[in-house]
C-alpha cells in the first residue's frame, strides 16, 4: 500500500516521537474524511495524531511542489531530519511557509575503503596466514586461485608452483565529514515596504520577520543622493499585486486553508527581479568609500590620470600610423625590386585591340603602352616591329609574327621542308605556294582558368626541329584567347559566331602569308579536340547526333554503322562526298586547299590516350580483378586485388612519372554505375604507360588467367603506337611503306579484336566492358590515312599543344579576369624574343643525336 511504502523511511515504521495508539478508522482533515484502512503506529500520541496524518496528507498533495525543502526531507531525508520536520510542523501548527523559511543544518558522513592487494604464490599465502583458521585459509586460497588465471613467473613460466595470484591482504577505511548550511528566505511584501530596507530598517523586517539591529554605517539613501527617489519611481512601476511567497506566520496564528493552485503558464516574477536589484544596490553600498569627500578625491585623481593617458594615446597613435606608413613603403619597394628581378616575359610590351565585338575591330587602336615598348626595343629585348599578328586583322606585313621572325633572323627556327613532304601534302589536296614554303598548323582547345572557360588558338610550324618542338614555349605561338562569356552560339546549327569571326581574320592572315609576304607559308593542318573541330567547321555531325563523323556518313544506327571495320563497309563509299555543315565555315575559303576536311588531323592523344585506350585499360583491369580464385592478382576481395595490381605496376619500369601515392581502385576504373561502361580515369600520358605495362604483364600470364584475344588486343595497340612514336623520335614526317603497312595491320587487328571482345562479354558481366564509342570509328580513318598518305600522326600529336595551353593558363591566372584576353597576349609577346633566341641556338647546332621521346608520350 502507499502508506506502507511511505513509512518505510521512518524508524521502526512509526512516526517519530509519537506513542502508539489505536488507529482510527476515519480521520477528519480540514473537513474531508479520509479512510484509514491501515493500523496506526503504537508510538503516535493522541495529541499529535491528527498533525502527523495531516502532514502526510500535505506531503502527498500537489502543493508539496511549492516547498522543495519539505518534499526533499519527506522523501529522502534522514531519521533526525524527519523528526525535526514533524516537530516544526506541530510547533508552527502546520505552517508550511514558515518551515520552508527556517534554517536547516545538515551534516553527512562518508567512508572510503581502500583495499591492499598483493601478488603471492600459494606457498606465500600459506606463510602469510591469509585467514585466522586453517580451514578458512585454504578455502580463501582455493577461491582466489579459481577466480583468476594467475601470473606465471617470467624466469620459469612452466613451473606451476611459481604462479602468483592477486589476493586482498588488508582493507583501509577513510572517514570524511561535511557540513552544509542552506537558507531560503521568502515573504510577501509590496514594493514600498521592500524599499524600506534602503533606509537601514533591514531586509528581514521589510519581509515581516523579527527586526535585526543594523550596522552603524550610513544608509544607501545617504550615500547616493536621489537614490531613494529613484527606487520609489522603480517601485511605482512594479505592480503592487506582484506574486511573492507568503511571509512566515507567527506561532499561535492559525494557518489559512490551502487552496489548490491551478497550473498556469510561467510569467514574469517582479519579486525576483526586485530581490536582484536590492542585492546589486547592497553590493554597491559595500564598494563605495566611507565618505563623500574621499570618493570625490578618488574620482578627480582618476579623471586626471585618464586625461594624461588620452594625450599619450594620441601621440602613440601618431607614431603607430607613421610606422604603418613606413612598412607600406617598405613593402612597395620590396615588391618593386621583385618585379625588377623577374624575367622580361612577365612584363608587358604592346597592346591588342578587341577582335570580337564590333566593326571597330577592323581598325587598329592606339597602343597604350607604346612608350614601354619603345624602351624594350631600345634595349634590344623585343622585336623592332609591333608584333600584332595576334591582334587581327592584319593591316600590313610588318604586323605579323611570321614576318617579324623572318626579318629578325629566326627563319631557321620554323624549319624547312623536303620535296617528299610537299608530295605527301599534294596527295591531300594542298598546293605549296613556293619552293621555300613553311607549313603551318592551327590548334584550338578550351580550358578553364579563374572560374572562366577560354578558347585558346595558336599556330606552329610543322617542320620545326624535333628538339624545338619538345618545348611548347619555343614552338607554339599564341594567336588569341577568347573567353566563353563572349561566345555567341546558335544551338540548332551548332554555329559559334564569335569563333567564326576570329577564324575569318585568321584565314585572311594565312592568305596574306601565302601570297603577299616575303616569306611564303601555307596552312597544312587543323587539329584540336572534337569540340573545337566541330565548332570551327560549323559541323552538324557530332557525337550527340546520329551522324557522328566529319569525313563520311557513318551513323549510330544500321544505315551506315560506324562499328563496321570491313573493307566493304557502307560508310567507305561516302568518304568526302558530303559536307558536315549547313553554313560554310570561315576556313573553307582558304587558298591552296582543295577541301578543308582533308587537312583536319585526327589527334592520337584524344582518340586513343583519352578515348579508346582508356576504355581498353579499364576493361582489362576489371576482367583481371573480377576473377576471385586463380586470377592474375592476389587478394580475397576486389580492393586487395587492386592494391596488388598497383604494387606490380609501380615496381615496373613503365611507372616512371607516376606519383608514389598512385592507387588503382573501383572508382578509378569506373565501377560506379552498372548502366555505364568501365573506363580508366587516367591522364593522357598515364594511359600510354598503362597500355605498355598491360602488354608486358599479359604476355606472362597463362591462357586460363588472360584469354588469347585479350592478350592480342592489348599487344596490337601497343605495337601500332610503338611504330608511330619511334618514327617520330627519328624525326620522320612521313612513314616508309613498311612502317605504314605494319602500323595499319596492327591497328586494324586491334579494332577487330576490340569489337570481338565487346560482343563476347556483352550481357555476361556486372559492368559493361569495351565501349565502342564514336572515337572507335575515328581510328578507322587514322589507320587508313597511314597507307594512303603515309603521314605520321604522331608527328602532330597534341601533347605539347596541351602543355602550351597549360602554360598559357599560368599567365592568365596572374591577370585580371576582365582584361585577361588582352594581358595574356601582352605578356606572351614580350617573352617571345628570348625564347626565339634560345630556339635559334638549338637549331644552329646541327650536330645532335636523336633524343628519346618526351615523358608525355609512350616510348
From TrEMBL:
Name under which the protein is recorded: Uncharacterized protein
Stretches for region Disordered: 1-46, 239-269
Species of origin: Effrenium voratum
Source species taxonomy: Eukaryota, Sar, Alveolata, Dinophyceae, Suessiales
Domain of life: Eukaryota
Compositional bias per record (Acidic residues), positions renumbered to this chain: 25-35
Polar residues: bias regions: 1-12
Amino acid at each position: 500500500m502507499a502508506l506502507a511504502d511511505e513509512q518505510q523511511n521512518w524508524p521502526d515504521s512509526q512516526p517519530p516521537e509519537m506513542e502508539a495508539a489505536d488507529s482510527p478508522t476515519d480521520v477528519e482533515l480540514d473537513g474531508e474524511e479520509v479512510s484509514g484502512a491501515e493500523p496506526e503506529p503504537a508510538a503516535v500520541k493522541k495529541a499529535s495524531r491528527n498533525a502527523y496524518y495531516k502532514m502526510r496528507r500535505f506531503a502527498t498533495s500537489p502543493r508539496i511542489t511549492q516547498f522543495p525543502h519539505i518534499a526533499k526531507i519527506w522523501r529522502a531525508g534522514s531519521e533526525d531530519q524527519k523528526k525535526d520536520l514533524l516537530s516544526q510542523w506541530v510547533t508552527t501548527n502546520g505552517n508550511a511557509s514558515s518551515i520552508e523559511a527556517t534554517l536547516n543544518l545538515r551534516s553527512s558522513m562518508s567512508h572510503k575503503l581502500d583495499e591492499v592487494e598483493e601478488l603471492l604464490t600459494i606457498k606465500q599465502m600459506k606463510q602469510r596466514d591469509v585467514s585466522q583458521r586453517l580451514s578458512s585459509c585454504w578455502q580463501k586460497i582455493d577461491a582466489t586461485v579459481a577466480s583468476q588465471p594467475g601470473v606465471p613467473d617470467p624466469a620459469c613460466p612452466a613451473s606451476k608452483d611459481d604462479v602468483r595470484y592477486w589476493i586482498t591482504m588488508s582493507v583501509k577505511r577513510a572517514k570524511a565529514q561535511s557540513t552544509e548550511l542552506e537558507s531560503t528566505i521568502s515573504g510577501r511584501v509590496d514594493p514600498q515596504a521592500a524599499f524600506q530596507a534602503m533606509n537601514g530598517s533591514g531586509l528581514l523586517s521589510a519581509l515581516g520577520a523579527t527586526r535585526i539591529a543594523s550596522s552603524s554605517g550610513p544608509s544607501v539613501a545617504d550615500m547616493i543622493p536621489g537614490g531613494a527617489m529613484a527606487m520609489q519611481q522603480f517601485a511605482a512601476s512594479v505592480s503592487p499585486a506582484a506574486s511573492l511567497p507568503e511571509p512566515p506566520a507567527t506561532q499561535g496564528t492559525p494557518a489559512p486553508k490551502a487552496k489548490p493552485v491551478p497550473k498556469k503558464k510561467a510569467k514574469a516574477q517582479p519579486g525576483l527581479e526586485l530581490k536582484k536589484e536590492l542585492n546589486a544596490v547592497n553590493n554597491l553600498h559595500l564598494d563605495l568609500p566611507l565618505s563623500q569627500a574621499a570618493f570625490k578625491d578618488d574620482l578627480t585623481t582618476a579623471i586626471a590620470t585618464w586625461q594624461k593617458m588620452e594625450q599619450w594615446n594620441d601621440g602613440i597613435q601618431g607614431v603607430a600610423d607613421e610606422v604603418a606608413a613606413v612598412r607600406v613603403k617598405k613593402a612597395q619597394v620590396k615588391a618593386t625590386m621583385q618585379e625588377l628581378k623577374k624575367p622580361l616575359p612577365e612584363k608587358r610590351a604592346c597592346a591588342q585591340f578587341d577582335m570580337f565585338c564590333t566593326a571597330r575591330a577592323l581598325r587598329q587602336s592606339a597602343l597604350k603602352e607604346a612608350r614601354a615598348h619603345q624602351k624594350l626595343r631600345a634595349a634590344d629585348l623585343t622585336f623592332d616591329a609591333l608584333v600584332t599578328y595576334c591582334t587581327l586583322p592584319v593591316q600590313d606585313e610588318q604586323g605579323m609574327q611570321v614576318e617579324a621572325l623572318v626579318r629578325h633572323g629566326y627563319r631557321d627556327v620554323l624549319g624547312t621542308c623536303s620535296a617528299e613532304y610537299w608530295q605527301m601534302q599534294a596527295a591531300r589536296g594542298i598546293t605549296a605556294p613556293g619552293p621555300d614554303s613553311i607549313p603551318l598548323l592551327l590548334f584550338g582547345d578550351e580550358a578553364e582558368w579563374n572560374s572562366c572557360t577560354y578558347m585558346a588558338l595558336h599556330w606552329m610550324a610543322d617542320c620545326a626541329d624535333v628538339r624545338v618542338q619538345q618545348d611548347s614555349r619555343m614552338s607554339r605561338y599564341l594567336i588569341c584567347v577568347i573567353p566563353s562569356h563572349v561566345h555567341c552560339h546558335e544551338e540548332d546549327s551548332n554555329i559559334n559566331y564569335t569563333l567564326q569571326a576570329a577564324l575569318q581574320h585568321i584565314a585572311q592572315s594565312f592568305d596574306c602569308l601565302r601570297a603577299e609576304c616575303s616569306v611564303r607559308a601555307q596552312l597544312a593542318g587543323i587539329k584540336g579536340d572534337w569540340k573545337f573541330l566541330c565548332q570551327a567547321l560549323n559541323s552538324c555531325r557530332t557525337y550527340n547526333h546520329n551522324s557522328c563523323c566529319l569525313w563520311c556518313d557513318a551513323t549510330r544506327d544500321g544505315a551506315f554503322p560506324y562499328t563496321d571495320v570491313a573493307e566493304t563497309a557502307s560508310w567507305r563509299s561516302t568518304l568526302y562526298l558530303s559536307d558536315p555543315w549547313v553554313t560554310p565555315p570561315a576556313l573553307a575559303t582558304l587558298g591552296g586547299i582543295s577541301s578543308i576536311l582533308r587537312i583536319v588531323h585526327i589527334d592520337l592523344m584524344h582518340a586513343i590516350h583519352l578515348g579508346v585506350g582508356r576504355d581498353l585499360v579499364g576493361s582489362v583491369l576489371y576482367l583481371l580483378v573480377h576473377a576471385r580464385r586463380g586470377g592474375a592478382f592476389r587478394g580475397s576481395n576486389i580492393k586487395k586485388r587492386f592494391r596488388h595490381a598497383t604494387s606490380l605496376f609501380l615496381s615496373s619500369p613503365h611507372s616512371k612519372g607516376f606519383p608514389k601515392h598512385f592507387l588503382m581502385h573501383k572508382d578509378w576504373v569506373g565501377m560506379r554505375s552498372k548502366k555505364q561502361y568501365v573506363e580508366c580515369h587516367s591522364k593522357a600520358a598515364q594511359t600510354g604507360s598503362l597500355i605498355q605495362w598491360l602488354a608486358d604483364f599479359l604476355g606472362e600470364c597463362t591462357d586460363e588467367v588472360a584469354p588469347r584475344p585479350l592478350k592480342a588486343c592489348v599487344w596490337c595497340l601497343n605495337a601500332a603506337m610503338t611504330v608511330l612514336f619511334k618514327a617520330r623520335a627519328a624525326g620522320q614526317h612521313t612513314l616508309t611503306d613498311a612502317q605504314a603497312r605494319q602500323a595499319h595491320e596492327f591497328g586494324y587487328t586491334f579494332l577487330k579484336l576490340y569489337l570481338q571482345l565487346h560482343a563476347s562479354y556483352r550481357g555476361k558481366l556486372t559492368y559493361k566492358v569495351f565501349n565502342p564509342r564514336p572515337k572507335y570509328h575515328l581510328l578507322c580513318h587514322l589507320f587508313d590515312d597511314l597507307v594512303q598518305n603515309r603521314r605520321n600522326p604522331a608527328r602532330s600529336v597534341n601533347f605539347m599543344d596541351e602543355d602550351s595551353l597549360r602554360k598559357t593558363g599560368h599567365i592568365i591566372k596572374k591577370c585580371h579576369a576582365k582584361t585577361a584576353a588582352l594581358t595574356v597576349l601582352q605578356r606572351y609577346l614580350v617573352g617571345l624574343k628570348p625564347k626565339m633566341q634560345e630556339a635559334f641556338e638549338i637549331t644552329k647546332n646541327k650536330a645532335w643525336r636523336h633524343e628519346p621521346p618526351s615523358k608525355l608520350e609512350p616510348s
